Amino acid sequence: MQDDSVLMPFGSHNSMLSHLSRDALIWLALKWLDSGPLCLPHFERVIDDENFTLQRLEEIRQIYIRYREQNSSKRVVAERMLYVDWTRGFSIQQTADIEFQHLFERPNSLKWTASKVLVSSSKRSSDPDQIDRLPTFHVPAFTKTLKKSLRPLINNHIHITQHPSVPLVVLRLYICARRSSSRNVGKARGTFFCAFPTSPSHIFHTPFTNPYQKIIRQCIETSLSVSGLQVTLQPTSLTSKSLAALVHLRTSSRDSTALGGWRVYATDGVDQSPLASSELVLHEMLDRATKQAIENKDERERKRLKIIDSRFGAVVGNNSTDEVDESDKPREATPMLDDDSALTRVEFRLENEYRGEFGESFLPKVRILIEGTHVFSGLRQMAIKGLIDERNMPAWVTGELGVSAGIILNGQYTPLKD
Hints:
Layout: H1 14-18, H2 22-33, H3 50-69, H4 74-85, H5 92-105, E1 112-121, H6 139-150, E2 155-162, E3 168-176, E4 188-197, E5 202-205, H7 211-224, E6 229-240, H8 243-249, H9 263-266, H10 278-294, H11 299-312, E7 345-351, E8 354-355, E9 361-362, E10 365-371, H12 375-384, E11 405-409, E12 412-414
Parallel strand pairs: 7-11
Antiparallel strand pairs: 1-5, 1-6, 2-3, 3-4, 4-5, 7-10, 8-9, 11-12
């Protein structure tokens, strides 16, 4: 069903269009006007009159340019697109553009999870250079192989684009139940998104919630595999509504391997780079010495804040002890992590075994759910205000483990079983 001209049912994406900004709507309209015959408006064309078509397209293009120059309302632009130019609905290619734009403008609109890429070699060799390695991710080759794998199993439409703000290639896969002989698609079975980092030690995707998407998972594994190297996707205990958070926690970067209190090593907060300017290093050392010399605050409070920094990670270039004023009352704490790396939801299940008065044992189960715009930063602020004991906090509530779900069995973290 990889036919970009297939029309989706009219009104299927009206709600999503209403959530886009005015500039995004105008950008989409101008893009479609320049995208060739598949996305052209549905005006009555004169047969074999190319000049008429070009003239009409230029008139429509100028209308949307005036909308942008005159700051017309979003409603005016959307109504023009829906009820004047694309009255018979959008093509499947246009709906992919709409959903991508909605994802980029509203980065927390979808739930994402990370799967670890495991590679096993099917060739047995005594050559020490023959080691398991991650296969190279090549977008055209992967797309071609994925289409070939899915074609006998399920009708689908694949569209791939580069994420505008994080180093990811995002794949949108639309699936439907049957092939239609008309210009409209069959009954929809959902849309699946998958994002590939530059070096795919993990891939990020929307959850596999139905049998069709489990088929997709198997086909993705097949498409990532190469001769002699078999790829499997292993679920992890990390979910988030922010793709940027998953990039921060699960890619081949310094930040992803130094979380919580170890963050200072990833940000040169302890050791200076050997390539750093000696004058700059000396200047930073003098600044730190000056700050320590002029500090006249309560030593116990400063020590407590340092413990909090060691658990959650200090803000780069900012001493957290500055968050306490002269009256020894903590101020509002600044987030310990960048907003891009925020987790908005973490959930853990506590299972601690207890013995009763007569020696019998029982295992109560307690569910802990924490939600917010930045969960671990909020916990850090609570610790600074004295609401949490910074000395007894386990690693799974400081962000050091880099997980958003799991089981705490007798005090020890255990990943969720698949």
